[in-house]
């Protein structure tokens, strides 16, 4: 019973929305921030509000949309764990400057979207497909769509890549996404909580069983790698060389798994989800060159 109690404790910590001491959710922008101008552009920009019902469980999902009236290219930007669309403002600016409409959903149970549990990208992948279809209905079938995500959003993009997506989805960019949910939670147990092999096993197995009952899937099923095996679209993989939260080794496994054309960039000294902040010009160049190659 002790392990079951501990399993529920860690499930609440990992999967139930709420304040997480290891996540910085401040939206305050310091002038010293290397992405200050990008974040301020997003803050001041007029945004359309879009809503949609989730693919499962009937939640109301919330998104911001920033159009570029001259463009038929749209990026769907997916945020990280316990973040929200507004934390992705700098990326919205980057893509808008490259000539893209920008659709920024709040994942279920995060930001202003309804939901009970954080799904680490697995249930969310079906929501992303539904957002894509909504976009094509609203803005027309001539849209060329790019999926982009950071951290959990990157894993979500990779998990979405294995679905039967509309032909308008032309390319995918993932920045520091994990291989699968179980690997990531085991890594966090080890690094954040310094948990040795025992009791990490059986605790993660118990957590996985609880997740199956509550969220609908075993942790190992939430796999970027398995979905990438089904992906034939071009993908750009980005990862910080000093990422301790989603270890850099994971990007090589993801990169190998995809079946489409692919590019990989390691931002050598960047920690987790900081490649753009640490290398803004190089980041922009890699993204721009990749998109120019595959989205016409």
Order of strands in the sheet with most strands: 1-2-4-3-5-6-7-8
Radius of gyration: 18 Å
Tally of strands: 8
Sheet with the most strands? 8 strands, mixed
Alpha plus pi helix count:
11
Percentage beta strand? 15-25%
Helix content: 40-55%
Order of helices and strands: HHEEEHEHEHEHHHEHEHH
Helix/strand/pairing category: alpha/beta
What are the low-pLDDT stretches, counting only 5+ consecutive residues below 50? Answer: none
Arithmetic mean pLDDT: 96
The CA-CA distance between the termini, in Å, is 58 Å
Silhouette:
globular
Give a brief rundown of this model:
The protein is of the alpha/beta class. Helix content is 41%, strand content 17%.
Task: Explain the overall architecture.
- This protein is an alpha/beta fold and 296 residues long.
- It is 41% helix and 17% strand.
- It is built from eleven helices and eight strands.
- An eight-stranded mixed β-sheet has the order 1-2-4-3-5-6-7-8, with helices on both faces.
- The protein is globular.
- The termini are far apart.
- The model has no long low-confidence stretch (mean pLDDT 96).
């Amino acid at each position: 019973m002790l392990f079951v109690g501990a399993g529920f404790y860690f499930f609440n910590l990992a999967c139930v929305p709420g304040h997480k001491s290891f996540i910085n959710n401040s939206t305050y922008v310091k002038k010293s921030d290397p992405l200050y101008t990008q974040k301020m552009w997003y803050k001041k920009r007029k945004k359309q509000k879009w809503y949609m019902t989730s693919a499962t469980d009937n939640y109301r999902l919330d998104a911001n949309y920033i159009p570029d009236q001259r463009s038929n290219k749209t990026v769907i930007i997916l945020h990280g764990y316990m973040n929200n669309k507004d934390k992705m403002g700098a990326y919205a600016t980057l893509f808008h400057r490259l000539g893209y409409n920008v659709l920024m959903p709040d994942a279920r149970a995060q930001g202003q979207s309804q939901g009970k549990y954080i799904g680490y990208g697995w249930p969310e992948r079906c929501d992303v497909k539904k957002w894509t279809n909504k976009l094509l209905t609203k803005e027309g079938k001539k849209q060329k769509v790019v999926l982009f995500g950071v951290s959990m959003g990157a894993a979500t993009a990779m998990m979405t890549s294995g679905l039967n997506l509309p032909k308008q989805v032309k390319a995918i960019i993932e920045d520091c996404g994990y291989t699968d949910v179980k690997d990531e939670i085991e890594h966090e147990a080890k690094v954040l909580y310094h948990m040795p092999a025992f009791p990490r096993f059986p605790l993660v197995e118990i957590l996985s069983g609880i997740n199956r009952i509550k969220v609908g899937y075993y942790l190992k099923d939430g796999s970027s790698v398995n979905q990438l095996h089904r992906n034939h679209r071009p993908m750009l993989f980005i990862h910080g060389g000093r990422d301790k939260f989603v270890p850099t080794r994971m990007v090589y496994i993801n990169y190998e798994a995809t079946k489409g054309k692919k590019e990989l960039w390691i931002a050598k000294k960047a920690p987790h989800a900081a490649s753009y902040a640490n290398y803004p010009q190089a980041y922009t160049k890699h993204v721009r060159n990749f998109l120019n190659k595959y989205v016409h």
